[in-house]
Amino acid sequence: MLTVPTEFNQVLSEKYLAYALSTITSRSLPDVRDGLKPVHRRLLWAMYQLKLDPKSGYKKCARVVGDVIGKFHPHGDVAVYDALVRLAQDFSVRYPLVEGQGNFGSIDGDNPAAMRYTEARLTESAMLLLENIENDTVDFKPTYDTLDEEPVLLPAYFPNLLANGSEGIAVGMATAIPPHNVDELCSAILHLIKKPNAEIIDLLEFVEGPDFPTGGLLSETKEAILNSYTTGRGSFRLRAKWHKEDLSHGQYQIIITEIPYQVQKSKLLEKIAENFDLKKTPLLGNIRDESAENIRIILEPKNRSVEAEILMESLFRSCELEIRYSMNLNALDMNGMPKVMNLKDILLAYIEHQKIVLTRKTKYRLSKIADRLEILKALLVAYLNIDEVIRIIREEDEPKQYMMKKFKLTEFQVEAILNMRLRQLRKLEEIEIKRENDELVKEQKYLQELLSDESLMKKEIADKVKDIKNLFSKKTKIGKRRTEIINKQIENNVISIEAFIEKEPITINLSKLGWLRAFKGHNVDVSAVKYKDDDEEFVSIKANTTDKFIVFTTSGKFYTIGGDKIPGGKGFGDPIRLLADIPAEDEIINFFLYEPEVKYLLITYGAVGFAVKSEDLLAQTKSGKQVLNLKEKDKVYGCYKLDKTHIATVGENRKMLVIPATEIPEMKKGQGVTIHKFKEGKLSDIAIFNANDGLKVKVKNKEENIDIKDWLLKRASTGKLAPFGMSKNNKFLG
């Protein structure tokens, strides 16, 4: 034997390439036409041959698996049985192709019983895949041992690839096709038959998105869904479906009724329990599983003040109550080559396959009609010449040859006459033959028109699609959409630390010397609070432990203190400088409760300042946040809530100015702008008021509302002298 030396690298590349192609085309990727991998196709064909249709009885799965691996699929029985089991699991497959009897596993991740205990038969969906397979609608090929034949693919009236989806990993490529709703798919197919040039955006008017067997909540924008189905690749956010159930005394619990696709319930519960033990879910009080046939997972909050949305948001981030399903519409095309397709490509492939199936079925039926018409013609000759036929059979040595010559019949026709039973020799049978002949001629004419008329063929396919649409309508139990789609992106809401703090009412007390403490509840007698010598109350605020407090100092810095961090009311409290790194030389000017979406006016003694949002005052660290930058020799005057229409300022020079609040620019930080210009002296007082209410000023020891029109000037003006009789200390209210 002659051997030819070959480079090892060359041999390795050739063999590996052959292995890769075999894995891609014969194991891992589904065919775009019937949506099946070889193992699934062989399973359905074996069950079809065993006559396991929906109306028949069940047979042991061991029998089915034995036939598959013995005749068609020379692989291990475990792999084949696993494939069979998955086709029967309604939580794995959107429209099961196998109806199982016995233990076929559960969504908990339980294994199915051994194949000798379980039984199976085909479902209506599977029968639609196999319908007309014996009418020469598809090609057959020899099995691995050449002793039998198996279909190359199935007729597949059922749009299985998108209806049930498919997943697989090949060499260098993979596929991940999510399941969809058949009612929606059929609507899109009918639209595409009517308008072949329709765009994908038009098809998405019918196909909302994936429809997973376990339901759930899918949240993606229409733009993201369109992009995924246009490119054939995308990602879908899928969350568990839940609702809040109110209990007595203000308590509540959360009920999870649907979990994401391919998530095992038992592992999900284990993960939640593990996070609970590790104190990673401080808002969760308890968890229990009350599931039976339907999923019912109970989550109890730690206390009734915990918001349900915040609790669920924390769980979505820590376990598989939320997943990302990555879609990759990779399948074998009409030529058997792997290709990433878009939604339109797959639906057009289905329509094209149905045209081929219909054409082959029609031609097959025409050939059968031609054969039958040939026989009927011979039978009619026999009835018209019945006596002569009987004589020939009785007297002639070679009746077949004699009849062929006498009546000008073919051998096939004469065989039909000779095989005719005696009881058929009656007048009624002759009438029946003529009727059958007329019907077949009529059918033959229609089928010939069907082959030559494209529009008639489209109508035939559309009628079949309509039948499937009605069979799996959204009004039926199996056809009802399970996955709810919200056409918006779920925002990754930032869960603040306050969400993990138990909300309790407190009364905050700050002394002038900077001692801070929190009393429980709001019914605190502030007048009875004791202070150190030479100390007194600076401010008292009723709030909650979840609130934040803002500290403003003479350096122009802001500090943030959480209500839960403030020490209890025993003793005199703690120095505020322990909770915030306030330098010893800085004094506290303002201490107030943080309120979102509120504007404040920051102003200096030089009457320079700007407006700032409350959100921009929050400091992330103990060292504070520099917001107001001071000019040389200038000092902070104060921070005021800017919730009125006008601002009045008065200086030590008794010049007063009123300006609209809208003239104050909004900034995040900086020095600001001149509000009131002083030639000498500095700011003495400020008032923020509504013009309709008037400006209250103490004149000759009496409060009066003065007309502001004389002092209503532009920002940065020097102003005019204050009203006659106004307090000599240049304060609006004395």
Tags for this entry?
32% helix; alpha+beta; four-stranded mixed β-sheet; Topoisomerase II, domain 5; 17 helices; 734 residues; single chain; Neuraminidase
Query: Runs with pLDDT <50, length 5+?
Result: none
Q: Structural class, from secondary structure content?
A: alpha+beta
From the 3D structure, determine the CATH topology of the domain at 502-721: Neuraminidase
Measured as a percent range, the helix fraction is 25-40%
**Distance, first to last CA:** 120 Å
Per-chain topology:
Blueprint: H1 8-28, H2 38-49, E1 59-60, H3 61-72, H4 77-88, E2 98-101, E3 119-122, H5 124-130, E4 140-142, E5 149-151, H6 160-164, E6 166-169, E7 174-177, H7 182-194, H8 200-203, E8 217-219, H9 222-231, E9 233-239, E10 241-246, E11 252-258, H10 265-277, E12 284-289, E13 297-301, H11 308-318, E14 322-328, E15 330-332, E16 338-340, H12 343-384, H13 386-395, H14 399-407, H15 411-418, H16 427-452, H17 454-471, E17 484-486, E18 505-511, E19 515-520, E20 537-544, E21 548-553, E22 557-562, E23 574-575, E24 588-593, E25 599-604, E26 608-613, E27 625-626, E28 636-641, E29 646-651, E30 655-660, E31 673-674, E32 683-689, E33 695-699, E34 702-706, E35 720-721
Parallel strand pairs: 8-17
Antiparallel strand pairs: 1-3, 2-3, 4-5, 6-7, 8-9, 9-14, 10-11, 11-13, 12-13, 15-16, 18-19, 18-20, 19-23, 21-22, 21-24, 22-27, 25-26, 25-28, 26-31, 29-30, 29-32, 30-35, 33-34
